[in-house]
Specification:
single chain; alpha+beta; Metal Binding Protein, Guanine Nucleotide Exchange Factor, Chain A; 3 helices; 9 strands; globular
Length: 183
Protein backbone atom coordinates (compact mmCIF):
# COMPACT_ATOMS: atom_id res chain seq x y z
CA UNK A 1 0.00 0.00 0.00
CA UNK A 2 2.82 2.41 0.86
CA UNK A 3 4.45 1.68 -2.50
CA UNK A 4 1.22 2.49 -4.35
CA UNK A 5 0.84 5.77 -2.47
CA UNK A 6 4.47 6.63 -3.16
CA UNK A 7 4.05 6.03 -6.88
CA UNK A 8 0.83 8.07 -6.89
CA UNK A 9 2.61 10.92 -5.09
CA UNK A 10 5.50 10.94 -7.53
CA UNK A 11 3.09 10.90 -10.48
CA UNK A 12 1.19 13.89 -9.05
CA UNK A 13 4.41 15.84 -8.43
CA UNK A 14 5.60 15.21 -12.00
CA UNK A 15 2.24 16.35 -13.34
CA UNK A 16 2.30 19.55 -11.29
CA UNK A 17 5.86 20.40 -12.36
CA UNK A 18 5.01 19.86 -16.04
CA UNK A 19 2.13 22.33 -15.72
CA UNK A 20 4.35 24.90 -13.99
CA UNK A 21 6.95 25.07 -16.80
CA UNK A 22 8.32 28.54 -17.37
CA UNK A 23 7.49 30.19 -20.69
CA UNK A 24 10.35 30.70 -23.11
CA UNK A 25 9.37 34.25 -24.12
CA UNK A 26 6.76 36.64 -22.83
CA UNK A 27 6.79 39.13 -25.70
CA UNK A 28 7.06 38.30 -29.36
CA UNK A 29 8.99 40.69 -31.58
CA UNK A 30 8.23 38.98 -34.92
CA UNK A 31 4.77 40.10 -36.13
CA UNK A 32 4.47 37.16 -38.56
CA UNK A 33 5.19 34.68 -35.76
CA UNK A 34 2.77 36.49 -33.45
CA UNK A 35 0.04 36.11 -36.10
CA UNK A 36 0.77 32.37 -36.48
CA UNK A 37 0.69 31.91 -32.70
CA UNK A 38 -2.83 33.37 -32.61
CA UNK A 39 -3.95 30.58 -34.97
CA UNK A 40 -2.84 27.81 -32.59
CA UNK A 41 -5.27 25.85 -30.47
CA UNK A 42 -4.85 26.28 -26.69
CA UNK A 43 -3.09 22.88 -26.52
CA UNK A 44 -0.73 23.72 -29.40
CA UNK A 45 0.13 27.04 -27.74
CA UNK A 46 0.70 25.44 -24.32
CA UNK A 47 2.95 22.75 -25.78
CA UNK A 48 5.02 24.93 -28.12
CA UNK A 49 5.25 28.15 -26.13
CA UNK A 50 4.94 27.00 -22.51
CA UNK A 51 6.88 23.70 -22.74
CA UNK A 52 3.75 21.68 -22.07
CA UNK A 53 3.15 18.01 -22.78
CA UNK A 54 0.07 16.49 -24.36
CA UNK A 55 -1.47 13.27 -23.01
CA UNK A 56 0.02 9.99 -24.27
CA UNK A 57 -2.12 7.86 -26.59
CA UNK A 58 -4.61 10.73 -26.92
CA UNK A 59 -2.83 12.83 -29.50
CA UNK A 60 -3.08 13.12 -33.25
CA UNK A 61 0.06 11.38 -34.51
CA UNK A 62 1.13 8.79 -31.93
CA UNK A 63 -0.21 5.98 -34.13
CA UNK A 64 -0.01 7.64 -37.56
CA UNK A 65 1.44 5.18 -40.09
CA UNK A 66 0.97 7.26 -43.26
CA UNK A 67 4.02 8.27 -45.33
CA UNK A 68 5.00 11.93 -45.19
CA UNK A 69 6.88 14.49 -43.13
CA UNK A 70 6.24 16.37 -39.91
CA UNK A 71 6.84 20.13 -39.79
CA UNK A 72 6.83 22.72 -37.01
CA UNK A 73 3.24 23.87 -36.38
CA UNK A 74 4.38 27.51 -36.09
CA UNK A 75 7.07 27.94 -38.77
CA UNK A 76 6.56 25.00 -41.11
CA UNK A 77 10.23 24.05 -40.89
CA UNK A 78 10.75 20.33 -41.72
CA UNK A 79 11.46 18.26 -38.61
CA UNK A 80 10.89 14.51 -39.02
CA UNK A 81 10.03 11.89 -41.64
CA UNK A 82 7.63 8.99 -41.34
CA UNK A 83 10.54 6.85 -42.61
CA UNK A 84 12.23 7.41 -39.21
CA UNK A 85 9.07 7.02 -37.09
CA UNK A 86 8.63 3.92 -34.98
CA UNK A 87 6.27 2.56 -32.36
CA UNK A 88 8.00 3.22 -29.03
CA UNK A 89 5.08 2.22 -26.82
CA UNK A 90 5.15 5.62 -25.07
CA UNK A 91 1.98 7.05 -26.64
CA UNK A 92 3.80 9.92 -28.37
CA UNK A 93 5.17 10.04 -31.91
CA UNK A 94 8.77 8.81 -31.74
CA UNK A 95 11.54 9.07 -34.32
CA UNK A 96 15.08 7.73 -34.57
CA UNK A 97 16.49 10.94 -36.07
CA UNK A 98 15.47 14.36 -37.36
CA UNK A 99 14.78 14.92 -41.05
CA UNK A 100 16.85 18.12 -41.02
CA UNK A 101 19.18 18.23 -38.02
CA UNK A 102 19.89 21.92 -38.62
CA UNK A 103 16.21 22.66 -37.81
CA UNK A 104 16.54 21.10 -34.35
CA UNK A 105 18.04 22.64 -31.20
CA UNK A 106 18.88 20.74 -28.04
CA UNK A 107 18.59 22.33 -24.60
CA UNK A 108 18.93 20.89 -21.14
CA UNK A 109 15.79 21.34 -19.06
CA UNK A 110 15.23 20.62 -15.36
CA UNK A 111 11.41 20.98 -15.27
CA UNK A 112 11.02 17.58 -13.59
CA UNK A 113 13.90 18.13 -11.19
CA UNK A 114 16.48 16.19 -13.20
CA UNK A 115 18.22 16.98 -16.50
CA UNK A 116 16.54 16.01 -19.78
CA UNK A 117 17.42 16.99 -23.34
CA UNK A 118 14.66 19.20 -24.70
CA UNK A 119 14.17 19.45 -28.47
CA UNK A 120 13.14 22.81 -29.94
CA UNK A 121 12.71 23.98 -33.51
CA UNK A 122 15.43 26.37 -34.62
CA UNK A 123 13.45 29.07 -36.42
CA UNK A 124 10.23 29.17 -34.40
CA UNK A 125 11.83 28.18 -31.06
CA UNK A 126 8.88 25.85 -30.49
CA UNK A 127 9.12 23.23 -27.76
CA UNK A 128 8.74 19.90 -29.58
CA UNK A 129 9.54 17.26 -26.97
CA UNK A 130 12.64 15.46 -25.67
CA UNK A 131 15.29 13.04 -26.90
CA UNK A 132 16.29 9.97 -24.91
CA UNK A 133 19.16 7.47 -25.37
CA UNK A 134 16.85 4.42 -25.41
CA UNK A 135 15.87 4.22 -29.06
CA UNK A 136 16.32 1.47 -31.65
CA UNK A 137 19.75 0.20 -32.57
CA UNK A 138 20.05 2.33 -35.75
CA UNK A 139 20.76 5.53 -33.76
CA UNK A 140 20.06 4.53 -30.16
CA UNK A 141 17.92 7.68 -29.88
CA UNK A 142 14.22 8.22 -29.26
CA UNK A 143 12.98 11.63 -30.30
CA UNK A 144 9.74 11.68 -28.30
CA UNK A 145 7.67 14.52 -29.77
CA UNK A 146 4.34 16.17 -29.07
CA UNK A 147 1.81 15.88 -31.91
CA UNK A 148 0.51 19.33 -30.94
CA UNK A 149 3.88 20.85 -31.92
CA UNK A 150 3.80 19.44 -35.43
CA UNK A 151 1.76 19.35 -38.60
CA UNK A 152 1.82 16.23 -40.77
CA UNK A 153 2.25 16.69 -44.52
CA UNK A 154 1.12 13.51 -46.33
CA UNK A 155 3.31 12.20 -49.14
CA UNK A 156 0.64 13.07 -51.73
CA UNK A 157 0.71 16.75 -50.62
CA UNK A 158 4.47 17.32 -50.35
CA UNK A 159 4.83 19.01 -53.76
CA UNK A 160 1.70 21.16 -53.41
CA UNK A 161 2.72 22.39 -49.96
CA UNK A 162 6.28 23.32 -50.96
CA UNK A 163 8.11 20.26 -49.64
CA UNK A 164 8.73 18.54 -52.99
CA UNK A 165 12.46 18.20 -52.26
CA UNK A 166 11.54 15.37 -49.84
CA UNK A 167 9.75 13.22 -52.44
CA UNK A 168 12.92 11.19 -53.26
CA UNK A 169 12.96 9.91 -49.65
CA UNK A 170 9.81 7.94 -50.41
CA UNK A 171 10.77 6.51 -53.80
CA UNK A 172 11.07 2.74 -53.94
CA UNK A 173 14.66 1.65 -54.32
CA UNK A 174 15.16 -0.92 -57.10
CA UNK A 175 15.73 -4.41 -55.76
CA UNK A 176 19.10 -5.94 -56.52
CA UNK A 177 18.83 -8.66 -59.11
CA UNK A 178 20.05 -12.11 -58.14
CA UNK A 179 23.43 -12.86 -59.65
CA UNK A 180 23.55 -15.54 -62.31
CA UNK A 181 25.25 -18.51 -60.70
CA UNK A 182 25.62 -20.60 -63.87
CA UNK A 183 29.15 -21.11 -65.18
Amino acid sequence: MKTSLGILGITLIIGIFSLMAEPTKEAETDPAKAARLKELTPLQYRVTQREGTEPPFRNEYWDNKKPGIYVDIVSGEPLFSSKDKYRSGTGWPSFTQPLESENILEKTDFHLGYPRTEIRSKNADSHLGHVFPDGPRATGLRYCMNSAAMRFIPLANLEDEGYGQYLPLFEEKPKKEAKDTEK
